[in-house]
Amino acid sequence: MPVTAYPEFPTNIPTHPLLVIDYELVKNGDEKEKNVLWKAATTLGFWYLKNHGAEEFVEDMFDMGAETMDLPMEEKMKFEQGDGGSSFGYKYAGANAVDASGEPDKIEFINIAKDDALSWPEQARRSYPSTVNNRMDSTIVPFVKKSVEINDMILNVFNTKLGLPEGTLNKLHSTEEYSASEARTIKASKNLPIGRQALGAHTDFGSLSFLHNRLGGLQVLPPGVDEWQYVKPLPGHAICNVGDALALLSGGILHSNIHRVYPPPGAQAGFERWSQVFFTRPGNSVALRPLSDHSPAIAEAVSKLTEEQRNVLGPGVTAVDWFNRRIKNQRVKNRTGPETWLASRGTEQGRV
């Protein structure tokens, strides 16, 4: 469905403004633009990214997603991600809880591992529906490579700003090591009840998210604010944000902000909501603790944290264990009570 066919985001709905970053300027070394990116990443942790060059790939990914979601449920369930803590594959609506009450989520999606896309036609992590395999060469591999390129550039900027030895963050996110990095195409049903969460409040598990929305629905809870606010999708602009892994590695300098997905506002609520995202996550073996020994700035930041915040930031678990714990304890079939939901939480527990 062409973007122009959707109703506009309502003008009477309050939204939270995001800083706009020009990727081409960052790529070309513009220091002023890098400073704006740094400001965004260390305050709200969200920003718009324009001139990223991924629009064509994103539209093709939406087409792949529609083809996949149109498959019979019996066929999709052959590729369901399961309850063991892995997220690659298909997830049906209602598989995950959105809060401590155990309310089921309202979205379905297909996750494609970065490792499978980059090793294609060899299988690295798992198999996928024919609708995915048929578009690996033309659609998925180009989108994944472009997303990796963009997020690697952003990591390089953060590496310099944090005063880390050259290449540190990029090495921790090397494509040579298996990771939980993945491309996700998401479908949320139309006309969801008002006030019902499609996706519960959370911080992202990994390092960077590169998101493309066709409709509103994303909401953020800014630091020090008690009221959720919509983020307005802008044509040609991705919405990017910092995840838990970078918050942990940076000693809380980079901010992983809590967010959720509600039904689109106004007339947009009458349409299926599609999103496309690429999640960059550290290599599976990377220990998630502040890189204080490599950066005086990180060491100083950690020294100013409360004991509770330091406990959140210093688990020292590997990236794969951090990720698997959060995925596994979100699954409704693994639920034993509110404690299961709490066990799926990340840095939002300490609001670092």
Automatic annotation (TrEMBL):
Keywords: Iron, Metal-binding, Oxidoreductase
Domain Fe2OG dioxygenase: 168-282
Isomerase in keyword set: no
Pfam families (UniProt xref): 2OG-FeII_Oxy (PF03171), DIOX_N (PF14226)
Highest taxon of the lineage: Eukaryota
InterPro entries found in the cross-reference section: DIOX_N, IPNS-like_FE2OG_OXY, IPNS-like_sf, Iron_ascorbate_oxido_reductase, Oxoglu/Fe-dep_dioxygenase_dom
Homology family: Belongs to the iron/ascorbate-dependent oxidoreductase family.
Protein name, entry field: Clavaminate synthase-like protein
Organism: Lentinula lateritia
